[in-house]
Amino acid sequence: MKNMRKGIRLTSEFFNRDVLKVAPGLIGKVLVLKNGEGLNYFSITETEAYRGESDKACHASRGRTPRNNIMYGKAGKVYVYFIYGMYWMLNFVTAEENNPQAVLIRGIEGYCGPGKLTKALNIDGSFYGEDLSTSDRIWIEDQGNKPVVKRGKRVGIGYAGKIWIDKQWRYFSELK
DNA sequence: AGCAAGATCGGT
DNA sequence: CCGATCTTGCTG
Q1: Where does the pLDDT of residue A118 fall: very low under 50, low under 70, confident under 90, or very high at 90 and above?
Q2: Fewer beta carbons below 10 Å: N end or C end of chain A?
Q3: Which bases on strand C have an atom closer than 7 Å to a protein beta carbon?
Q4: Is the CB of A113 under 7 A from strand B?
Q5: pLDDT for the residue A104
Q6: What global pTM score does this model have?
Q7: Does at least one atom of strand C sit less than 7 Å from the CB of A84?
Q8: Strand C lies under 7 A from the Cβ of residue A82
Q9: How far apart are CA A70 and CA A137, in angstroms?
Q10: In chain A, pLDDT over 90 holds for what percent of residues?
Q11: How far, in Å, CA of A158 to CA of A26, rounded?
């Protein structure tokens, strides 16, 4: 959704924290994407936390691989991956180096579902490794919104085992 | 080299 | 519930 308000870009400081802080903190923040000459603004409505090698639902649960390599690096980088032969998933790296955590962006205003929003916004593998604090085509702004954040279980991780399935690491606002 | 599974989605 | 569609990572 278009948004003309002035926002403050989030830097690596925001992302260099535990994902259980960053994931709820992103609800109500604004995803900004370059679109030709202009910019598009989308309020983030739903996120999920993936928290290190011990988290059996996290891509890092089986150690470092070419795909998840970026998760082991600096916070505030974009982690995108291709799934089910047709969808790109948009994630941001959180926490300090060698602590492989990421936030999955599951919903933005106007688009519910992680595969649908990347398709709508033309986000693909070319965004892998993009730095949210310096990129000129993708970043996050704080525009002062303070939504009520609700939480629930993560979606689509039935393979992870009960204790990880039961974690309430999905965060969302009523705005959907 | 082969293969099973997948942080999804839309149609039955 | 099921198929689409193809990358990834594990096995051998």
Answers
A1: very high
A2: N
A3: 4-10
A4: yes
A5: 98
A6: 0.96
A7: yes
A8: yes
A9: 19
A10: 94
A11: 25
Nucleotide nearest to A64 (CA to C1'): C9
The nt closest to A125 (CA vs C1′) is C7
Q: What pLDDT was estimated at residue A3? A: 67
Question: A45: which 2 tokens?
Answer: 């409505």
pLDDT of residue A1: 63
Q: Is the CB of A158 under 7 A from strand C?
A: no
**CA-to-C1' distance for A76 and C7, Å?**
25
* Residues shown for chain A: 176
Q: pLDDT by residue (tens digit) across A31-43?
A: 999 999 999 999 9
Domains identified in chain A and CATH numbers: 8-172 (3.10.300.10)
Asked if residue A63 keeps its beta carbon closer than 7 A to nucleic acid strand C, the reply is yes
- What are the C-alpha distances in Å from A29 to residues A10, A37, A141, A147, A151? 9, 22, 6, 9, 16
From the Cβ of A38, is strand C under 7 Å away?
no
- CB distance A152 to A170 below 8 Å: yes
